[in-house]
Structure formats: C-alpha cells, structure tokens
Amino acid sequence: MSRIFTQVQKKGLQSTPENGIIIDTADVCEKKKKGQLPMKKPILTGEEYFEKIIEGGYFYVDKTLFIKELLENKGTVTLITRPRRFGKTLNMSTLRHFFDVNRDSKVLFNGLKIMEHSEIIEKHMNKYPVVSLTLKNVELSGYKNSIDRIKGLISEIYQEKLYLIESLNEFQKKDFFRYCSKEATEDELQSALKFLTICLHAYHQKRVIVLLDEYDTPITNALTEGYYPQMIKFMRGFLGSAFKGNDYLEFGVMTGVHRIVWKRWKRNKKRVETSTSFFTELISAL
C-alpha cells in the first residue's frame, strides 16, 4: 500500500485513504493559477456580528434554517441554553437582521439556506420591530452598579429608537425620555422592555420580537458577589413584564449559559430542577 501511495505522489497525485479519492495536485495548482478554483475564505474567530462576517467575506457556517425551525415551533418565548463560545450571540445577531423591519437584509442572506423558503421570506423577513439586548457585561461587584449598567444598556436601546416619539402621547414621551436619560427608578426599569414594545407597536402597528442575550449573567454574578436576593427580585419583574402576558409581544428568544432541566410533570405544571435554585424562582415569573 505504501509503495502504491509513493508512486501516486511521484505522479503529482494525492490520495485520501478515508474515501479513496485520488486528486491530481498538479491540476489543482494549475487551476488555482488560472483563477478557476474559488479562494478559501478567511476565518474570523470570536466575531459575534452576522453582518460583519457576511459583508467581510469571511467563512460562515450556514445555520439559517434555525429561523425556519423557530417559526414552526411557534413558542411565545424560546430559551436557548449553551456554554459560552457556542455561537449564541451570533445566532441572535442573525435573527435581528432577518426580522428587523428597519433593515433590508436580502443581500446579507443571499445564497443562504433560509432563502430557499420563499414563503418565509415573503411573510417574515424584515417585517417586525425588534428589541435586541445583551446582558453579558452585567458582571459588577455591587447591586447598584449592576442596576446602573442595565440602565445604561436600556438608555442605548431607547436612543436608537427616538423616531418613535412622534407616535407617543405626552405622558408616554415623558416616560420615554426618562429611560433615555437613565432617570428611571428601579421599579420603572423593570418595565423598560415592555414599555418599549408598547411604543414600537404604536408606531409600526405590529407586534414586537424581543431578543435577550445571556439573560442569566446578572443572576449568576449576583450569586457569586452576594446580592442574589435583590437581583433575582429585580430580574423576575424585568423578564416577567416583557415576556409574560405582554399583548404587544410577537415572540421572544432568550439565551443563557446555564442549563435548565424539565424534570417531570406535577399537577399539570412543569417542575424545574437545576443545580441552583434561582432558576426555579425565575422561571415561575414566566
């Protein structure tokens, strides 16, 4: 076998024992020189933004059919739990570009698998107002510092959507600017996402998609830093107001690092069991 392989190499051929394919390497080199073979795309490691990868011509593993799966499941809130560096944020960025009514994303998705489903493209692509928020950097040493960081993130989102002002009444405008200027109280902050869905619905006359990345980071950090009771109380209100009984919500997608296990059914209610108790407390709000 080794003698045959040596003879193959001398002739400018390359054998792959796994599948038995023999490639004429001399022919491949010649085609490369003539530009008849596509160049390999560079791999951009650690990038979390769909638009940057596509527009930069970087290598992209096409997982866009998960959009079709998401729509077919028809869940009010979908929770995706995976360890860090599993591409959760990239998937959330992909969702934002696909659904956001303020974008025109056909060029970005051109050639990707989701574009083969014309009914989905016609009905859903760039048809919804979208709220996108990540809490992955809310890892501070004190409760007040964490709340201030969340206020800053909420302020950024509201400032991106100042065009909504024209569709609001005077009372709503006051609340809107309080969120913009980080003046909202802690109780008001708990309703920040829901109020924004109300404003978006008033302007676009369509229900809103809410994307929340790494929702559990503030909670796990609070558990480590010693202010867990305060943070879990805040997050129950923050998430509950946005995702539970919100008439202006089309659907929501949340990602987290920690796994939730649906253990068994009890009295027609799902019982949650995990390595830490706060998930049981949090999920009861949703």
What does this structure look like?
By secondary structure, this protein is of the alpha/beta class. The chain has 2 domains: 2-33, no CATH class; 50-144 and 191-283, 3-Layer(aba) Sandwich (Rossmann fold), CATH 3.40.50. The chain is 47% helix and 15% strand. The protein is built from 14 helices and 8 strands. It has helices spanning 2-10, 25-33, 50-55, 65-73, 88-99, 106-109, 118-124, 143-160, 170-180, 186-189, 192-204, 217-225, 228-243, 278-283, and strands spanning 13-16, 21-24, 77-81, 130-134, 208-213, 249-256, 261-266, 269-273. A 4-stranded parallel β-sheet has the order 3-6-5-4, with helices on both faces. It has a two-stranded antiparallel sheet with strand order 1-2. A hairpin with a 2-residue loop joins strand 7 (261-266) and strand 8 (269-273). Helix 8 (143-160) packs across helix 9, helix 11 packs parallel to helix 13 and helix 12 (217-225) runs antiparallel to helix 13. It starts with a helix and ends with a helix. Residues 1-26 and 262-280 have low confidence and may be disordered.
Brief write-up:
With 286 residues, the protein is α/β, with parallel strands linked by helices.
